[in-house]
Design a protein that fits this description.
By secondary structure, this protein is an alpha/beta fold. 41% of the residues lie in helices and 14% in strands. It contains eleven helices and eight strands. It has an eight-stranded parallel β-barrel with strand order 1-2-3-4-5-6-7-8, surrounded by eight helices. α2 packs across α4, α4 runs parallel beside α5 and α5 crosses α6. It is globular, with a radius of gyration of 17 Å. Bound molecules: 3-methyl-2-oxobutanoic acid. 3-methyl-2-oxobutanoic acid binds next to β6.
Length: 264
């Protein structure tokens, strides 16, 4: 497959073809995923939980993200690499520029930041400096202590309206992509239709422009032994990991995943 760029992703949205995104933290998985047809590899700060064993993403540092982004870049065969700016590394636009410079030099094609409409000045400043930005909305794990737990967001009307307004403000500020986590499917559909940029979902139903999962979840690997409601274990019925990855890509492209039982 030719190298995936923002132009490719925008065309997929325009053509109504689903975008497949998956986390990877090392060269081997980056290679397997890009060969399987994953278009966007997310070097997620979820690595703090699934690799480092923390109970949240808060301990992850920019140095950690640089190390894993470099590893992913070496194994990648053409996917678009998005890397998370970790907790407290983009508290001001200037700090966001310094942190993003490190991730882009390590091989990221885009950074992802978590928050809401108040990030608009940070987005504009990053884009002006050559850094494409995805904004992660809804359940934002870096603010788990403010949210009071990992809960579905946007169930109340006022919260839902605020999310729609934030999405439009962030697109106007220059965001090239949005990611919605754990929001009701009807709200995710409305946001996806209301912006021109691609919207990737996790726990946001099948109406978003693309899907993302944490690769450990997709492979049924979990320290607690439990998987979130929005996850499907693609190892079930697959003879090996590359087949499970291909089955995930096919299921997203055919709009068979997520199914109604994975939605809120
Ligand atoms: O860090 C991560 O893996 C993420 C996904 C859960 C979307 O942000």
């Amino acid at each position: 497959m030719p190298d995936v760029t923002l132009t490719t992703l925008n065309k997929l949205k325009q053509n109504g073809e689903k975008i497949v995104c998956l986390t990877a933290y090392d060269a081997t998985f980056a290679h397997l995923e890009s060969q399987a047809g994953v278009e966007v590899i997310l070097v997620g700060d979820s690595l703090g939980m699934v690799l480092q064993g923390h109970d949240s993403t808060l301990p992850v540092t920019v140095e950690d993200m640089v190390y894993h982004t470099r590893s992913v870049r070496r194994g990648n065969a053409g996917a678009f690499i998005m890397a998370d700016l970790p907790f407290m590394s983009y508290a001001t636009p200037d700090q966001a520029i310094q942190s993003s410079a490190q991730l882009m030099r390590a091989g990221a094609h885009m950074v992802k930041i978590e928050g809401a409409g108040w990030l608009a000045p940070t987005v504009t400043s990053l884009v002006r400096n050559g850094v494409p930005v995805c904004v992660h909305l809804g359940l934002t794990p870096q603010t788990v202590n403010v949210l009071g737990g990992y809960k579905v967001q946007g169930r109340e009307e006022a919260q839902a309206r605020a999310l729609v307004d934030d999405a439009s403000a962030l697109e106007a500020a220059g965001a090239s992509m949005l990611l919605l986590e754990c929001v009701p499917s009807a709200l995710a559909d409305e946001i996806t239709r209301s912006v021109r940029v691609p919207v990737i979902g996790i726990g946001a139903g099948s109406g978003t422009d693309g899907q993302v999962l944490v690769v450990h979840d997709l492979l049924g690997l979990s320290i607690s032994g439990r998987l979130p409601k929005f996850v499907k274990n693609f190892m079930i019925g697959a003879p090996d990991v590359p087949s499970a990855l291909r089955n995930y890509v096919d299921a997203v492209k055919r709009v068979e995943f997520p199914a109604p039982e994975h939605e809120f």
